[in-house]
Amino acid sequence: MGMFEWQQKFSVGITSIDGQHQNLFRIAGELEAAMKEGKGRQAVGGILDRLIQYTAVHFSHEERLMQQFGYPDYSAHKAEHDALTKKVIALQKDYHDRQMAITVELLQFLKDWLEHHISQSDQRYSPFLKAKAVA
Question: What per-residue confidence (pLDDT) applies to 135?
Answer without folding.
Answer: 61
